[in-house]
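Hi R.,

Here's the chain you asked about this morning:
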Amino acid sequence: MQTDIDPRSLIGRKAFDREGVKIGTVDEVYLDDATGVPEWAAVRTGLFSRDAFVPLEPSEFTADTLRVPFDRALIRDAPDFGVGRHLSPEQELQLYRHYGLDSSSVTDPGPDRDFGRLAGQEE
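And here is the predicted structure, written out as tokens:
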């Protein structure tokens, strides 16, 4: 995903899976505190008003939509951690594993690393 995009601009945008099927609407964006880079989006799927976490890398933001390169079924089955809270390193590892992504950046987070800061929230 482009890192020069304001993560708050993603909120409210429609999200689609790799087949172009609508997943839902981006509800929140989570940043890595160490880098400030957007890492995860919580997408309101509409299915029982549940938010599904999707990785922003390797997703693409084009034409005011978020394209997530995974099947809708995989996204729907993502671990549910609720929204509005920080993602712990363990939760983030579960998400990386769920999507089959390289989790080497979170295997040793260190004591000072805080994952999952919400975009737009001040410390």
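One quick note: The chain has a mean pLDDT of 84.

Cheers,
M.
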